[in-house]
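re the bet — no i am not wrong, look at it urself. input seq straight from the record:
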Amino acid sequence: MRLLEFQAKELFAEYGIHTPQGRASTDVDMAREDAESLGYPFVIKFQAPVGGRGKAGGIQLCSNREEFEIKYPQILEMVIKGERARAILLEKAADIKKELYLSLFLNRSKRCYTVIASAEGGVEIESVKDQIIREVGMGHITDDVGLEVAREMGLEENITNQFIDILSRLSQLAVEKEVELAEINPLAILDDGSLVALDGKVITDDNSNFRHPELQKYHEASEVEERAEKSGFSLVTMDGNIAVIGNGAGLVMSTLDMLSDSGGRAACFLDVGGGATTESVYEALTLISKIDGITGILVNLYGGIVKTTTVASAFLLAYENRLIDIPVFARLKGTESDKARVMLADSRTELFDSVEDAIQSAVTEARTQ
């Protein structure tokens, strides 16, 4: 489950991580009251589980009431990467001296959390050359690790102690809420020397959310995700460009990790489940076709209860009906996999003996788009 920015910041505040004063709303009347309470200037922020909001015009400075009356309705009606605004966040403007990057993500392949930090924030971390990366286990991060990271970032002494404290609190949040990603970008140094989380991203583990009833208030499936749930399979949209399909949550999640390690970015992950039929897989492909920005489909399937030929038949039907016209990179093993490979031999599906090779080809193709 990917939280909206203001929801992630609610968790940050719960763990004592400083964020700007802000108010979230869903209509202009409510927002007018929030605007008067906050006072100008403030930033109007589009709230949806997608990246690239700033580039799309979904984050704008508002200096007075006249600007508010123009900008708030415009941003509320925006559609960014196929998503409408689920809320609008009004947040006090900050006097920024420097922007940093800090995140913790769950590395499933190594069964540990990994810290990624950089002295350059406010941009996608993939584009930053000087990343500091530390594997820190599954427990809380020690102050010694925080000090090492701060020094490697070149932080001044008065900032270092604050940074260590924030990293410790972010670690506590990640461990206690069992999150897959907790990211602050940017973590800003303000003119007064304080550190504040200007933006936040938190992704929780759907498989552990049942242990956290306090997080259920944040669950809000997209239209595509709701339709997937009604059809009997699990689909979660993300902000990359490669759709990931597999059978079994563990297999799909490990494929996501491998894709990320290879420099790829998932647009969604789809678990067709143990009771998949040709019809349900076709419906899944129908939903994937509605997600903007997908340049390829990565399939990692081990046929057991679900025959690989079932999935192959759905892809052939999708090609026949021109439902999909993007390249597919597939690793098929298990029940009837030899037959499935023959079925797909003359299609746009490229078949591989290993998932690593399929991932590499998918990532290479995505980079050419």
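see?? The two ends are 28 Å apart (CA to CA). told u. also Residues 36 and 318 are 53 Å apart (CA to CA). so pay up
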